[in-house]
Design a protein that fits this description.
Blueprint: E1 4-9, E2 12-17, H1 28-42, E3 49-54, H2 75-90, E4 96-100, E5 103-105, H3 107-114, E6 117-121, E7 125-127, H4 141-149, H5 151-159, E8 164-165, H6 166-171, E9 177-179, H7 184-197, H8 200-212, H9 218-233, H10 238-249
Parallel strand pairs: 2-3, 3-4, 4-6, 5-7, 6-9
Antiparallel strand pairs: 1-2, 7-8
Length: 250
Amino acid sequence: MASVEVTFSGPRADLRLNRPDVLNAMDMEVFDGLAAAADEIADSPATRVVVVTGEGRAFSAGIDVGAIGSIAGSTEETVARAQAGFRKIAALEMPVIASVQGFAFGAGLQLALACDIRVIARDAKLGLLEANFGLIPDLIGSTRLPQIVGAGRAKKMIWLAERIDGAEAGRIGLAEVVVEAAALQEATDELAGRLAEAPVTPVRQAKKLIDASASLSVNDGMDAEAAAQLACLSAPDFADNLMSGLQKLS
């Protein structure tokens, strides 16, 4: 059985870590599987929303320390290979939801950070623990966490390898949705369903603009907005989207 599985159902793709016996800890097979799964999803024109989950009682406990000794190749090659899937998931055009239960430590939390929206169980345990081992989060964590919670809070979390629960994640903005563990699946499905029904072009254009916003000046950002708006206006389904929006106002 594959350590990373992708299933498609209509407009939805589910990407699932499938190593429940080790709390979905990540080894090189998982890293390669994430990259392959992201490629498969990117090549699926019918997919409008992606849900990332972990099988069993954890999202992911992080790096599988038992597999470190078996890694071959240079440090540079290993880091690049590990990063590839995270880069590809973050670059997907459609919305990506992380549905997080149990543990999300290290690489596990960074996988959730590579997603656009995080639905997190209130009792989940999260943290970037790399500093405890003389390392930094290098799978998008040091880049994405400060964008979400602010630079000062991100520094404190990373420097001190802090562990927080889902309730605290919601309070600091790391989780967009916080629910009881028993309601996690329902909340995830409800959000995924709404996003799958949203107009494709504005959703994808908005994702592109927001992801680029941190590196753009106001003028460059507004130029990008203008180009994105033209893409929306020229989309084949624009007239239908406009009529649907007007009907919702009545």
